[in-house]
Amino acid sequence: xxxxxxxxxxxxxxxxxxxxxxxxxxxxxxxxxMFQNTRGFADAYIGQVQIVECSKCFEPYYHHVNETxxxxxxxxxxxxxxxxxxx
Length: 87
Ligand SMILES: [Zn+2]
What we know:
alpha+beta, 1 helix, binds zinc ion
């Protein structure tokens, strides 16, 4: 269980994406933009998830989050590079 800051928690939206880096709606490869386009984190039926917005079609999707992913997200936010959270 990752101790996710409440300010980064949002209601679960979008659809589950098993492929993680490829948008389930339009197949766009989000590899390099995933953390910049992370809208937040939620508690889902499958566990803690990271919610990402596709930078091409703007549809949200989610996948499992691990400690490393969350730490990278925090670094991106601290660097002022996240689209939804500015420090
Ligand atoms: Zn898309």
